[in-house]
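Hi team,

Filling in the usual template for the complex we talked about on Friday. All components are listed, including any nucleic acid strands or ligand strings, so the model treats them as one assembly.

SUBMITTER: L.P.
PURPOSE: interface mapping
COMPONENTS: six
RESIDUES: 756
SEQUENCES:
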Amino acid sequence: MEHNQRLIDGKAMLQRVDAEAADSVMASLHTIAPDVAKMILEFAFNDIYMRSGLSLQQRELITITSLLTQGDTADQLRVHLNGCLNVGLSQKEIVEACIHCIPYVGFPKVLNALTVVKEVFADSQK
Amino acid sequence: MEHNQRLIDGKAMLQRVDAEAADSVMASLHTIAPDVAKMILEFAFNDIYMRSGLSLQQRELITITSLLTQGDTADQLRVHLNGCLNVGLSQKEIVEACIHCIPYVGFPKVLNALTVVKEVFADSQK
Amino acid sequence: MEHNQRLIDGKAMLQRVDAEAADSVMASLHTIAPDVAKMILEFAFNDIYMRSGLSLQQRELITITSLLTQGDTADQLRVHLNGCLNVGLSQKEIVEACIHCIPYVGFPKVLNALTVVKEVFADSQK
Amino acid sequence: MEHNQRLIDGKAMLQRVDAEAADSVMASLHTIAPDVAKMILEFAFNDIYMRSGLSLQQRELITITSLLTQGDTADQLRVHLNGCLNVGLSQKEIVEACIHCIPYVGFPKVLNALTVVKEVFADSQK
Amino acid sequence: MEHNQRLIDGKAMLQRVDAEAADSVMASLHTIAPDVAKMILEFAFNDIYMRSGLSLQQRELITITSLLTQGDTADQLRVHLNGCLNVGLSQKEIVEACIHCIPYVGFPKVLNALTVVKEVFADSQK
Amino acid sequence: MEHNQRLIDGKAMLQRVDAEAADSVMASLHTIAPDVAKMILEFAFNDIYMRSGLSLQQRELITITSLLTQGDTADQLRVHLNGCLNVGLSQKEIVEACIHCIPYVGFPKVLNALTVVKEVFADSQK
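RESULT (copied from the run log):
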């Protein structure tokens, strides 16, 4: 039954990080690759996110940095920028995290990320 | 004089993050591109690192995540893994940050980073 | 005349891999860089694809893996996902290939690819 | 006052490279991260672009190559393809620069860049 | 107990793909991050590699393509080039897979991979 | 016979860009993948380098920028930094090209490139 517990706990964690994304990610993968949705919940949001050693705020900061750095991740950034806000990071911390990356990745990737940040902040105000 | 202040403050910041690296980075760039050493101090370690909004621990966590994610950065990781320890992150937090990246970048980049982490932790014990 | 044979054979190969793309790639490059269209046919689809040692199914599997891994390649993935189907790979094999990449590149790039896979499969049903 | 001079000179340089972009970049960053706009002007367009040792034509050639190579940079390419034209590179030189990258990065990134090149050349004809 | 079964089956799979690597990967992660070794076995070599839909030969072909494409993966390539041979791919197929990537990633990454291929083939002859 | 002319002209071009590399690249590929050596000569150094529209100096500037930007290319950079010097670019232009990339790729990739630049300049003085 441990397997199912991984799924249940992973779902609860994704709900906490970004409840809206939880539903839309599941829905979009439903027909094409439902097992990937399961792996995201069991592996990413249970096995990884539930580990001790880092706070959820630290985890989300790491996540958006990795997404910003690899590029071509606007969709995933959208989920985790909401995640950042949901676990209690401030808008200022999020923007600063992007700015902090400039010396490591250059301006283009940071500008791409800030474009998504701007959308997410605008949506979260509604 | 503001320009010189940027350099002085940047030097102090790099000293704080990694005193040993401060000297070796300067030395290695001295003959080939001394202006780059100056930019690292003035722009990266003054203009960016001195900003408010994130703690030095958060900044170093972001830095190693960005380096791990882009790959081919063993030398820079070495500097900033020492930086992580110097600003007060625990060994556990550093290893957890690497593990947290697995769902976002896959195992190869995380294994590469952990190889450097292992070296740095071994050296820091001496 | 060998040169022209490379072009003729490359065209035939691209027709076989993705007939529709063959026309649209040519058309889109026609005004801006017709030589690039020629190189794609002569070099990629003749010199490389016509080599022995791998089946066309293996070649298309390698192609979509490389495109998925480098990111920012939705347009090229579209062509070669159709190519996969045209050379006889099953939908299951294509989705499995994407899933197999998760431990090597992480979820974001796989999710990006699956979004294109879903579109291509939907279009191919029409 | 040196600081302000960096900003003034950086603004003048960006005006020269791409006057239209100068305004739109400033505007888009205005609410979310005005300091990043300042860094682009002071660091990128003053500290870097104003250096001696390379002509502006060489600098823009380097810029579009770096953007093409890293991928996911259509927005930045748009600015700097206009920049290429504004500092006197010919359309032929720009297309050739993209073609020259094929052996180093493969076709997909070059095709992505040529799509933007085509748009920019069409717009510049109006 | 399912959890342990994942570990047991993952170990058996890695043994089959590359028995020597199985031991050295475990050993190298033992002190620094033993949980990562466990995840590699449970997630990568059980959850992913044990799936139906692709042969082990197809899986290893995909793996080396993804490693070649992302770069900075000489250590991982070494493991999976041996894996390719162990699951029955021929030396010719492996070299062809590298060559097939040239139009997609350019020559540098393919040359880097071929350097490792050459070492692995030389070692496997001993 | 056109095919052979491509090979002959490509060889002459690589001789001109970097005579020493011409021999060592051929030698290293001789046993593992001789066709790749042929493609480098015919496609890269004939079909691409022999095109009109850019000077050899512009081509080598583009080449090192693309190599610096993609990372994990120290071996190829070594060849083309020598190539830069051989086609008449000055040491100052080469270092400036690296510095110019800082705003686009960040410091780590530029520092990696400068390490190779330093070696190549030291060797060229002997």
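MY TAKE: Helices of chain A lie at 2-30, 34-48, 56-70, 74-86, 91-100, 102-105, 107-125. The domain at 53-126 of chain A is CATH 1.20.1290.10 (AhpD-like).

Thanks, L.
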